[in-house]
Amino acid sequence: MTAEQFIIDDRENNLFRVNREAFTSEDVLQRERKEIFGKTWLYVGHESEIPGKNDFQTRDVGGRPVIFNRDRHGDVRVLLNTCLHRGSSVCRHSSGNAKIFTCFYHGWAYRNSGELVNVPGNEDYKSEPAAVYKGLQSPAQVDSYRGLYFVNFDPDAPDLLTFLGEARYFIDLAADQSPEGVAILEGTHKYSLKANWKLLVENSIDGYHAKSVHHTHFEMMMELGATPPMLGKDTVNGIAPAGMGTEFPNGHATLMYPANGLPLATDSVKQTLAGLRAQAEQAFGENYANAMFGLARNSVFFPSLILIDLSFGLTLRTFYPVSASETLVTGWQIIPKGVDEEFVKYRIDNALTFWGPAGLATPDDVEALEQAQKGFGARGEVGWSDVSKGMGKPVPAANDELQMRSWWREWNRRITGEQLPTEGTSFVPFDKQGVDA
Ligand code: FES
Ligand SMILES: [Fe+2]
């Protein structure tokens, strides 16, 4: 083993291991900042979060502070939130509406399309700052898909659609849930955990841990007469209860399994969902509507955008490393547009009681990941993690680990340059009538 070897991908013995050094080394993190967060498409926000002219949200994207906003003409922008004078933030609010961003340090002012328009004491400069510096910088590439905005700091990176490839089908399954489209519920969950960001990537697409870590939730569901995920009898579009895992080029992956149960949903909430499903069936056909409303889906879009649809909630999550052992998470709930107040309340309740940092699911996950990070203290003695489950099966189940291996192979390619073949599993998207799927 060389110091460079981070994964062991042994096809003969169906063994896949990850070097625990990858989760603890600050040197690895520096390489990730350059090769991953500097060169891939990173999620910044959804268009519904800045509905009107001059609306803005500030975000941290891959370690860069940005303003995600609409300018005075209503065009979406992403501006780097750093003053050209000496670096201070030009916008210190998390969201709002502003035509001008004024740096609080010495007062340089920028229009919300970026141009530098006022410099106090401008007459003291021999070369005018506005002419020299022009305006706030933007990431090299900004693009969107179905209302989701992404940035890429690498001007030479392939475009967003090429990068997402077939995996974008899972964004469609979320975005098509209402004829009017979808929106982000106001309010975000922000929390940090003392664990490496890649542990949260694994966890977000890990069907194996559900039964042990989330047994409280499972017990609650069973008390309410619902069947916990991956344990039922129903198949949906030919997908068995245990579900299936998928791999896509560029490290994206999804696991899916029949959705089961709407904990604490009222009849009205169930009716709203049934109505949306009927509309989808008419627009796109039965297969696609079944996939949309009958299958639960956990997707990762490389490197760290997660979209999880469990029918009772549809959550979007992204996270970036603070250090090798700390990660900052932001989570949102998505709702189909045009639903009634009661449905919105159900989703808000769900966001708080299940997905949120004090909900039924997240604290258990955080605890498991922080324990793992602590365990890596013994990496000198126990140096490798195992990600082999289901390897070699023609169709790995949702509680196997194909999706993580797919992600790790892309991570490895970007960090070491070593290109490893996929496992060759294939996924045929459920046909979407009348639309080019
Ligand atoms: S740092 Fe912004 S005006 Fe000086
Ligand atoms: Fe979990």
Write the topology of this structure:
Blueprint: E1 7-10, E2 15-19, H1 26-35, E3 42-46, E4 55-61, E5 64-70, E6 76-80, E7 95-97, E8 100-102, E9 109-111, E10 116-118, H2 129-133, E11 141-145, E12 148-152, H3 160-164, H4 169-175, E13 182-184, E14 189-193, H5 197-204, H6 210-213, H7 215-223, E15 244-247, E16 253-258, H8 267-284, H9 286-294, E17 295-301, E18 305-309, E19 314-323, E20 326-336, H10 341-355, H11 362-375, E21 384-386, H12 402-416
Antiparallel strand pairs: 1-2, 2-21, 3-12, 4-5, 4-7, 5-6, 8-9, 9-10, 11-12, 13-20, 14-20, 15-16, 16-17, 17-18, 18-19, 19-20
Helix pairs in contact: 8-9
The protein binds FE2/S2 (inorganic) cluster and fe (ii) ion (FE2).
FE2/S2 (inorganic) cluster (FES) is lined by residues 83, 85-88, 103, 105-108.
Envelope shape: globular
Bound ions, cofactors and other small molecules, one mention each: FE2/S2 (inorganic) cluster, fe (ii) ion
Work out the helicity level: 25-40%
- Report mean pLDDT, rounded to a whole number: 94
CATH homologous superfamily of the largest domain, by name? Naphthalene 1,2-dioxygenase Alpha Subunit, Chain A, domain 1
Q: How far is the first residue's CA from the last residue's CA? A: 44 Å
Please give the domain count: 2
How many beta-strand elements? 21
Task: Just give the CATH class of the largest domain.
Answer: Alpha Beta
Radius of gyration: 23 Å
- Corresponding CATH architecture of the largest domain: Alpha-Beta Complex
